Amino acid sequence: MAAPPGLPPGPSASKTVQSVQWIVRPTAMMERCHRRYGDMFTLRLVHEGNWVFLAHPEAVKQVFTGDPRLLHAGEANVVLLPFLGRNSVLLLDEQPHMAQRKLMLPPFHGERMRRYGETMAEVAGREVETWPMGRPLKLWPRMQAITLEVVMRTVFGVTGTTRLRRLEAALREVLSWGSDPRRLAMVAVVGPHRLSRVPAFRRVMAPADELLFEEIRRRRSASDLEGRDDVLSMLIQARDEEGRGMSDQELRDELMTLLVAGHETTATSLAWAIERLVRHPDSMERLRSEIAVGEDTYLDAVVKETMRLRPVLTIVLRRLTEDMEIGGRMLPAGATVAPSIYLVHRRPDIYPDPHSFRPERWLDRSPGTYTWFPFGGGTRRCLGASFALFELKAVLSAVLSRVALRTADPTPERPVRRAVTLVPGNGAEVIVEPLTAVGPPSPRVVAAA
Description:
Layout (H helix, E strand, L loop, with lengths): L14 H10 L1 H12 L2 E6 L3 E6 L2 H8 L6 E2 H4 L4 H4 L9 H11 L7 H17 L7 E3 H17 L5 H19 L1 H10 L1 H4 L3 H22 L10 H7 L10 H15 L1 H14 L3 H12 L4 H13 L8 E3 L3 E3 L2 E3 L4 E4 L1 H4 L40 H16 L2 E5 L7 E4 L2 E4 L4 E6 L15
Parallel strand pairs: 2-8
Antiparallel strand pairs: 1-2, 3-5, 4-12, 5-8, 6-7, 9-12, 10-11
């Protein structure tokens, strides 16, 4: 007789205590539970129910290849509802999700990616010119400035300076509000379904929505719509199998989705890449030498290793709609399974010396589908993964070909939570110097993870 559905072991503390620990120190909590309970453990969280963390690639494979009817990612991502809206591809499941995904996929492939690359390099180059020389500079907010303008120009298609700055300012306000620890506590207490009724939230969201809808209306009536290659213009022209296009509300929700999923995550990966490189001068010099001759093999390895060791998102989520066997255990309907990017990426049986930054490990191997998944996996893999990887390499190349960077403090920066992401604890602080000031590589800094 099959065993009845049940949850794997986990901490015995109350939901409130576990929720606070998960918000404040997520990586330490995962590592502690992994050591004590193994590759599958349960956390109980306020407003979220039971989360079953998975740290073995075979269990991850079961989730990514499982029946989407039984594994609802949209339902599990409900915490994003107040910001993204009900039409977001991240919050839809089953047939509605696949239909929306088909409409959104074409803009992120093909020749247009190379045209986007020119914009990425231009924006990054202009930003670097404003950096002060010889004194500490926190790079994380500077990377945010780059990726936000890239999103505004390539995704939203906004180029006029006045409109660009107005929309950037409004969207920055929304992102800042949503990542403030005090507001995160409010979301945890109020819950995502009621947050949209909170006056403080409405006050910050309303101006951004007004500008987004204004931009959508403006674009619909543009005389050059068919000749534009920004994502918004292509989404306006996209049609489903029955010839229907997206409504203004659907377009607004997907623009917010692309902003949230593609702006801060990419900026944070860029900041982490430089935070790691300045503490590993040999890697920095090898990368700079490759960029100088137009090669990108080591650049690709640096990006992959950064995303392995410092994933911006630590988990992906799926809500079980029925009882389901995963990892040799029958889990109950209603539980949320959480393949842990962070834990799988640090398994010593997959990555020897897993806590060290070693881009060389990627020179003779390709990422495994279930052992390297910073963009999630299966039918829910991030639509903008190719765009993000392209942008990471374009911006790193633009920065490192213009200035030299060194660490302001050799102590590695600790990952800290900002909303659902992990960012460098000191903002990826560096000293910027002219390229002519670069001398022999400094003694290698032995940096802990």
